[in-house]
Design goal:
The chain has about 250 residues and is an all-alpha fold. It has 2 domains: about 90 residues, Endonuclease Iii, domain 2 (Orthogonal Bundle); about 100 residues, Hypothetical protein, domain 2 (Endonuclease III, domain 1, Orthogonal Bundle). It contains 13 helices and no strands. Helix 5 crosses helix 6 and helix 9 crosses helix 11. The longest helix is centred in the middle third of the chain and has 19 residues.
Length: about 250
């Protein structure tokens, strides 16, 4: 795994390659971002942005969402997939906010992860982008990119989060997460575009041979002057035995 100084240098290069790194979810306040991040599971940010305007028009705050009829929420968020499960998480989260925090979104990791449907990734997104609290969200893109490059070494998102946080100043946590996510979407995909990567020279994944040019093929052998052409290999049993195969009889219909 890379040292802390190497990690910081790599992140700096990636930031230069993706200067527009930022969450793609559209929101106006912490409550809206919390809802949008819960909805973003197993779907795209673009799809979430398509359904949230109507959802927020009907349920602008935690109190309204906590009192909502599940069927109406399901109708509004149906396009994001897993709508029944997401509805339960949204209503449970909203009720938790009302009962424990007077409807406001808390600014502490410990309080956020106690809410239904809220894990560390979601909490870090909300903390970093809506509440001004440093947070380093680790999703599937961050997990893949960080391990490939070598700035993390674990399949556990929480371990990767701690490894990156220990190598970076807190002021860089949120933008680093956004940068790694964007790099995973644009460049370091499951089938990576290594020729477009700004940190290819430092990448452990690339150094193991990924993205290298294929080995050149051996040139075809040329026959020596005057040599007889090689006989074709027999392909049928009869040919191999040196006999002629009997004609095939047609059966009457």
């Amino acid at each position: 795994m890379k040292t802390a100084s190497q990690t910081r240098a790599i992140v700096k290069k990636l930031e230069a390659q993706h200067p527009d790194a930022q969450t793609a979810l559209q929101f106006a306040n912490p409550f809206q971002l919390l809802v949008a991040t819960i909805l973003s599971a197993q779907t795209t940010d673009e799809r979430v942005n398509q359904v949230t305007p109507a959802l927020f028009a009907c349920y602008p705050d935690a109190r309204a969402l906590a009192a909502a009829q599940p069927g109406e929420i399901e109708r509004l968020i149906h396009a994001t997939g897993f709508y029944a499960q997401k509805t339960r998480s949204l209503v449970g989260m909203a009720r938790g906010l009302v009962e424990r925090h007077e409807g406001a979104v808390p600014g502490q990791m410990e309080a956020l992860v106690r809410l239904p449907g809220v894990g560390r990734k979601t909490a870090n997104v909300v903390l970093g982008h809506a509440l001004g609290v440093p947070g380093l969200a680790v999703d599937r893109h961050v997990l893949r990119v960080a391990n490939r490059i070598g700035i993390a070494d674990s399949v556990d998102p929480e371990v990767v989060e701690q490894q990156l946080r220990s190598a970076l100043p807190a002021s860089k946590w949120t933008v680093t997460s956004d940068t790694l996510i964007l790099h995973g979407r644009r460049i370091c995909k499951p089938r990576p575009l290594c020729d477009r990567c700004a940190v290819r020279p430092e990448c452990a994944f690339f150094s193991r041979g990924v993205g290298a040019s294929p080995a050149p093929r051996r040139p075809a052998k040329t026959a020596k002057p005057g040599a007889k052409p090689a006989a074709a290999r027999p392909t049928t049993r009869a040919a191999k035995a040196g006999t002629t195969a009997p004609p095939t009889r047609r059966r009457g219909r």
